[in-house]
Amino acid sequence: MPRPLAGIEKFPRIRLGHAPTPLDRAPNLGASLGIDLWVKRDDCTGLALGGNKVRQLEFYLGDARARGADTVLITGAVQSNFVRLAAAGARQLGMDIHIQLEERVDDADDLYRTSGNVLLDRLLGATLHPFPVGEDEAAADASLEDLARSVTAGGGKPYVIHLGADHPPIGGLGYVVAANEWMEQARARGFGFDAVVCASGSALTHAGTLIGMRAIGEETPVYGVCVRRDASLQHARVVKRAAELAAMIDRPALFDVDGVDVSDEVYLPGYGKLNDAVREAVSMAARCEALLLDPVYTGKAMAGLIAHVRSGRIAAGNRVLFIHTGGLPGIFAYAAKLEPWLSNEGGR
Ligand SMILES: Cc1ncc(COP(=O)(O)O)c(C=O)c1O
């Protein structure tokens, strides 16, 4: 069992997931890239098809319950994994759940709108609220606050999980804890890592990982791969969130701006959009390792890892930890977009 971390205990937490998740070696994919690749299987966190957001929700919903809330409100893209897992966590705790679905991709097809996470949101009985804008976090949060007011007016006790970075990064605590978990697993095998790679979206996984590693004395580089915005915007966001997390656990000195590394070389054409690097990464992981990656988050993160290896930023022979953050329902929502590529030369 991982040691309890100083500074974390004061935050209410509810266990929702299976932990520790496995730390698996990926020998075939690693060999084809020329590195010693390990995967932290946070796609196996258990709750309703799993993913990184389970760890984040343990702290959000812990806070919600400590405040006496009975209804959770959250906003996200139509194929958001976070909102699906918020619905699952809320249901486990006997809470009501409202989800605001933002129009964030401009080429959504029928599968995108009906399959994958949306299907699961509906199965979980969430109340869905369409929201026409996908690039305005303040407006999305304001609309969520309006919904929360109507919950209050109806006699409920709402808890809002905000999207914007102007609210405390509570979910990031989940990855401060997780870093301790995978380092205990690695140390039990007698090794450490030369690099850690993860998707960087809201930045809470990335910032939590960074502060979690530093909190246990690990100076390993943490490479965040942009999945939501370009590198300059994302860098500022990770800096803010990491500094806040270090302060939240009363260890502000853990934050060092020089340790924040984000890259956006596989980001375009933008959030939720495929490119050849992502298709290659999704395919290589599946065919070398039976490791299933999604097109929006983990596929992009693996494409970023591959780009770092090919550019030499991650050196040949390095022992690298890839954090598999889940997102598996997204594979089905993107089936039509993956299909043409699967059927042609590139998919073989
Ligand atoms: C599957 C998956 N991986 C990675 C991320 C990015 O994590 P974060 O938002 O903590 O940066 C998300 C965000 O929604 C996700 O759903």
SSE topology sketch:
Layout: E1 23-25, H1 27-33, E2 36-41, H2 53-66, E3 71-77, H3 81-92, E4 96-102, H4 110-114, H5 116-123, E5 127-131, H6 137-153, E6 158-161, H7 173-188, E7 195-200, H8 204-215, E8 222-226, H9 231-248, E9 261-263, H10 276-289, H11 298-311, E10 319-324, H12 329-333, H13 335-343
Helix pairs in contact: 1-10, 2-3, 2-7, 3-5, 7-8, 8-9, 10-11
Bound molecules: pyridoxal-5'-phosphate.
- CATH C-level category of the largest domain: Alpha Beta
Give the uncertain stretches in residue-range form. none
Number of helices: 13
Give the helix level as a range of percent: 40-55%
Q: Main beta sheet: strand number and arrangement?
A: 6 strands, mixed
Widest sheet: strand order? 1-2-10-7-8-9
CATH topology of the largest domain: Rossmann fold
Distinct small molecules bound, one entry per kind: pyridoxal-5'-phosphate
**How many individual β-strands?**
10
The shape is globular
Structural class: alpha/beta
Radius of gyration: 19 Å
Architecture (CATH level 2) name of the largest domain:
3-Layer(aba) Sandwich
Mean pLDDT: 96
Determine the N-to-C terminus distance: 42 Å
* Total number of distinct structural domains: 2
Helix and strand string, N-terminal first?
A: EHEHEHEHHEHEHEHEHEHHEHH
Strand content: 5-15%
Give an account of the 3D structure.
The chain has 348 residues and is of the alpha/beta class. The protein folds into 2 domains: 23-51 and 169-347, Rossmann fold; 53-161, Rossmann fold. The protein is 43% helix and 15% strand. The protein has 13 helices and 10 strands. The protein has helices at 27-33, 53-66, 81-92, 110-114, 116-123, 137-153, 173-188, 204-215, 231-248, 276-289, 298-311, 329-333, 335-343, and strands at 23-25, 36-41, 71-77, 96-102, 127-131, 158-161, 195-200, 222-226, 261-263, 319-324. The strands form 2 sheets. A 6-stranded mixed sheet has the order 1-2-10-7-8-9, with helices on both faces. It has a 4-stranded parallel sheet with strand order 5-4-3-6, with helices on both faces. The radius of gyration is 19 Å and the shape is globular. The N and C termini lie far apart (42 Å). The mean pLDDT is 96. The structure holds pyridoxal-5'-phosphate (PLP).
